[in-house]
Every structure is written in structure tokens, then in C-alpha cells.
Amino acid sequence: MALPRWFPLARNEARILLTSKGPWALAALLVLWAYRPSYIAWDGLGPDMTVGFVQTTATIVLPLGALLLSYRSIVGERRSGSLKFVLGLPLTRTDVLVGKVLGRSVGIAVPVTVSASALGLIGLVRFGLFSPLRFLAVLLATHLYVLVLVSLATAVSAVTTSTVRATGVVFGVVFLVLTVFWKLIASRIYSAVSGQAANPYDAPADGLLFALLRVSPDRSYRVLTNWILGVGNSGASYDAVITKLQTPTSISVFVVEAAFETTPVPFYLHEVTGFVVLVVWLVVPLGVARYLFERGDLV
Amino acid sequence: MTTPAIETEGLSKRYGETVALERLDLSVSRGEVFGFLGPNGAGKSTTINLLLNYAKPTEGTASVLGYDPWNEVVECHRRVGILPDRYDTYDGLSARRHLQLVRDTKRATDDPEALLERVGLADAVDQPAGEFSQGMEQRLALAMSLVGEPDLLVLDEPFTGLDPHGVALVRDVVAAEAERGATVFFSSHVLGQVQVVCDRVGILHRGRLVDVGSLADLRSKLDLGDDATVEDVFVDLTADSVRSGEGVR
Ligand SMILES: Nc1ncnc2c1ncn2[C@@H]1O[C@H](COP(=O)(O)OP(=O)(O)OP(=O)(O)O)[C@@H](O)[C@H]1O
Ligand SMILES: [Mg+2]
């Protein structure tokens, strides 16, 4: 079977990352960041708490790292001129985008897998055997999330001509708006649209609010992985969801089951939407970027 | 092998108000060594960028080895060797890795070491390109253009940054590639070398092709004596920019 045209480029991109220090520093950081045993998580999950650690890697640190390692991939090469060699290869510009996204994603997914394995090993020794299937499923979901982040950063990188603007969009929009502050922003949008307060201690049983909340790839990733963990239908972290469902008024977290106690849950809040939203974030921005990147001048 | 190596019709490129290239009609035959000359800012790199799909034309058509350079990029670039201007190599990757990337994407079988030896980098095969001097980088870029015995070599100022040995190397490589049957299209300001290796030259001035032909043709057409050099021809054809110093718009 012939390898795809973009394969050597993707391999090259992965190699550039894997032979540099950044991704390995990220791997070490992820382990330190995500190893957080707690009584409440142990109560809710038992040994599967270890699988929860993998979900925690994808909070804040992983998005920041993945975006940092990919936002310059095209605009930086365009500025320096190394893109000219890549564009001179027998590849369409779409091939170039695909090769960059997949290669960079592998270059980040490998250290992420190493961190997850380290967390798995520590968890296995300290807390006993967890469900290997759940572990694998959460790890795969994390890989999908890495792919989404790299694809978003590459899409921005492909359509901007200045590194400063790429930095602004990637960190201002993707990281701050969609990752760090999305819960706050979605609540504000909801209040403005519905005229109702979105109080996280006692959230209204309104599908719109919960749908808005899971628009962000960050929260969708957690909806998906909380589903795999079986803790509840929410874009919050697994331990927060467990806490919320035990003592609902103690914590400012949005969980579908806590809000829809008496009313039926709308079908579009099914956990599978977490996966769907991630796929949309993977495909749509890159599709738009491809359209523009195929047409423009690149020198 | 009947289609020309390069053919353009009415090829134009404007950047806002700037007319970088104005209705270029050019034909370069297979096996020819063609020198593309002109003052700074004349539009040489613009032409090359268009032919390599780095940029899209405002108007006009072109064919490269019989392919549409903007819509048949894969087929076209598989047979073209490219040495761009103002490029950068990957600092962290060795010379070998650079050549492997080109070779594997072109599905060629060249030995990176042999190519690097050919451009005088036999000692630097596994050195990261970030440690290269300017001339070494240019040699690496030249080696990358030679991967897969291309039918057409497009070289934008191949002499940039090279010492006299390097200049002689490029000249010999161009001659050897032409001997092999390849077409060579290159831009340059090193007119002494152009005179030695080119079958024909085209002179671009302010985005327009002001003349094209062999040196002998141009000499007789311009009424310059038998011993007139390419430099004399160049100065004669682009005199207004030299006198007023307005070559760069
Ligand atoms: N990306 C761009 N944006 C705006 N103007 C451009 C761009 N690229 C080239 N130009 C303009 O087009 C004209 C032709 O430039 P070009 O680089 O083709 O010249 P050249 O013949 O290669 O010159 P040199 O000998 O200095 O390399 C110049 O006036 C230049 O300013
Ligand atoms: Mg130029």
C-alpha cells in the first residue's frame, strides 16, 4: 500500500517536535499537574480514579502546551522562508496542512501517552487495578482533543500573515475564551439571551444553557471523558462532578443531572455531543483555513 | 517532449498599486539553460514565485513542463527542482534529514550523502543546518533542488552567498544538469557566470520583458560590438534605472 503523499512531511514535523525539549518538558509537567488523588474521587471511582488523572492532564496545561507547540507551524515558516521548501515539494497546499496537523499531533500525542502511562503506572501501584478499557478510551479521547487543538492552531497559523496576530487569536480566542473562561462567557451569553440568571449552585433546567456550555472543545472533551468515566453528564472536571452529585449546593458546577432532577433531559444534551462538538472543531476551522490557504499568495 | 519547459502568456502580477509583472510572454525550450536577468525589483522572483505556485497570478496563464503550475502542483513539482530565494532551513534538522524529506516526498531514490558530496558538504552530512554558514546553507539548498534528477531546475539567484569555489560549483552543476538533458531556468546578477552557462537570456525591467535571445542576438540587435558582454547588454537595456538609480520601485 502506498503511503499518502504528505507522510514524509508529517514524519518530519513529528521528528522536529520529538527531538526538541518542549514536548518532553510538557510530558513531565502533565504528570506533576494531573496526579491529584482525593477522597471524593476515590469514593466515586475507586481505582478508576487513575483514569481521572488522565482527564486532568487535558485541563489548562495540555491545551496551553499543544497550542504553544503548533501556533507558529505555518506562519513562522512563512516568515522565515522555510515554507518555500515545503511548498516546492510535490504536495498540494491541502497536503501541506494535513501533513502539518497530523505530524505535529503525533509529536504531542507521544509525550501525552508517556505521561498517561506514567500516571497509570503510579495509580496501579498505589490504588490498584483500574479498568484498562476506560483508561484506553480516555487516552484516545485525549488524543482527539490534541488533534483538535493542533488543528485549530494550524488553521489560524495558515491564514494569518503575522506571527503577532496568530499569537493573539490562538491565545486570546482558543485558549482564554474557549478554554479558560468559557464557563463564565457561556453563562453571560445565556443570561443575556434568556434574561435568566445562570446560577451554577442552582442551575435552571434549560437545555440552552447546557448546550452553550459544551460549545467549547475543552468542555466537550470533559463531557466525553466524564461519560467514559461514568461520573455524570457535565463539562466540569470528574472530581467536581462527583462532588456536585453528592452535595449539589456545595459547589459552583454545572451538571445536567443536578439541574434536570424533575424535568426530562433534552436529547441534544446526550454525552455523545461531546464527541460531535470535538469533531466539528476539528473539521470546520481547518476546512475554512484550507479554502483560504489554497487560494492566497504565500510569499 | 514537445511542450516547452516553461511557457507564459500575458502573465501579470500586481500587489495593490505595484505592478510587479506586466503581461509576460515567455517560452523556454526543453534542455535550454535560460538566464533571467534584470535590476533589483524587476520582477524576477515574482515570476518564479508564480511558476512555483508560491503566489497566484492576477492575470495570464502559464505551463511548466506542460502542467498548469497552480492546479497540477503535484505532477509538476515531482519533476521540478527548486532553489528559492530568501528561504530558511530547519535549524534542528541535519543536512541528511533535509534531503530525505525532499527525496521521500518526491519518491526518488537519491543517496543524501552522494548529493551532499556533490555540493561540497560531505563533511557536514549529519550537522544540524542551524549551524551552517550562509554559503553552506546555499549549498544544501542546491543539493535539495537536485533530488530526483528533475526535468526542470528553477534557481532564484543560485550564487547568493557563495565563495568563488561555490560559484564555480553552481556553474558546473548547471552545465552538468543541462548535459543530462534538464532545462535550467535561473535568475542572477552574476553576469559573468550567466554569460558562460546560458544558451539564452531574458532581460526583465520594471515588470516587462525588454528583450530575450542569445548573447549574439542581443549584441547585434543592440548594435553593440562583438566583444560586448552580458553586462553591456544589461546596462544598455535597463539604462534608465541605472542612470536615475530607480531600479527599485
Ligand atoms: N509580497 C509582495 N508584496 C508587495 N509587493 C511585492 C511583493 N513581492 C514583490 N513585490 C514587488 O514586486 C516588485 C518585483 O519584485 P521581485 O522580488 O520580483 O524583484 P526581483 O527582480 O526578484 O529583484 P531582486 O533582483 O532584488 O531579487 C518589487 O517592486 C517588489 O516591491
Ligand atoms: Mg529576486
UniProtKB/TrEMBL annotation, chain A:
Transmembrane residue ranges: 16-35, 50-71, 106-129, 135-159, 166-185, 272-293
GO molecular function: ABC-type transporter activity
UniProt keyword list: Membrane, Transmembrane, Transmembrane helix
Signal peptide: none
Single GO cellular component term: plasma membrane
Family annotation (Pfam families): ABC2_membrane_2 (PF12679)
Protein name listed in UniProt: ABC transporter permease
From TrEMBL, chain B:
InterPro entries, A to Z: AAA+_ATPase, ABC_transporter-like_ATP-bd, P-loop_NTPase
Keywords noted in UniProt: ATP-binding, Nucleotide-binding, Transport
Statement: the UniProt record of this protein carries the keyword Protein transport: no
Protein name per Swiss-Prot or TrEMBL: ABC transporter ATP-binding protein
Species annotation: Haloarcula salina
GO molecular function: ATP binding; ATP hydrolysis activity
Similarity field: Belongs to the ABC transporter superfamily.
PANTHER family on file: ABC TRANSPORTER, ATP-BINDING PROTEIN
A Pfam family matched in the record: ABC_tran
Recorded superkingdom: Archaea
SMART domains, sorted: AAA
Segments forming domain ABC transporter: 6-231
PROSITE patterns referenced in this protein's UniProt entry, alphabetically: ABC_TRANSPORTER_2
